[in-house]
Amino acid sequence: MGAPWTIATYVVEGGMTNTYTNIKSMCHTAPNVLRGLLSHLAQAISDYIIYQVNSGAQCVQIFDSWGGQLPPHVWEQWSKPYIKQVTVPYFLCSHVFPTSHVACSVIIQSSD
After folding, report:
1. Contact 12, 24 (CB under 8 A)
2. Using an 8 Å Cβ cutoff, are 33 and 79 in contact?
3. Which of 11, 36, 42, 106 is deepest in the core (most CB within 10 A)?
4. How many CB atoms lie within 10 A of CB 87?
5. Domain ranges of the chain
6. DSSP3 helix / strand / coil % (the chain, rounded to 5)
7. Residue 110 CA to its chain's centroid (Å)
8. What is the pLDDT of residue 95?
9. Gap between the Cα atoms of 15 and 53, Å rounded
10. Number of Cβ atoms within 10 Å of the Cβ of 22
């Protein structure tokens, strides 16, 4: 499933983009609005992951497709915290299963 930053990109840009102008601008012009959107998306994604796990999912993969468009220090601020917000609740539930996080088609973090 999509990571919060990737889904927020589609929401803010209104679809595909090559420039990411609007969402990158929001980091500076409307950071509180962007934080609220990312947090809301993270909660919804987390709820859906827990639903999937309770329905029998044995693995979850989070795609941060547009996270790769951010410089590392920007990704650390605007993507990583919301991926953590997504993943913490299901690590706290009684289910233990493999997870992976993919950015730009490269697995950068995994847990067994």
Report:
1. no
2. no
3. 42
4. 20
5. 4-111
6. 60, 15, 25
7. 15
8. 54
9. 29
10. 15
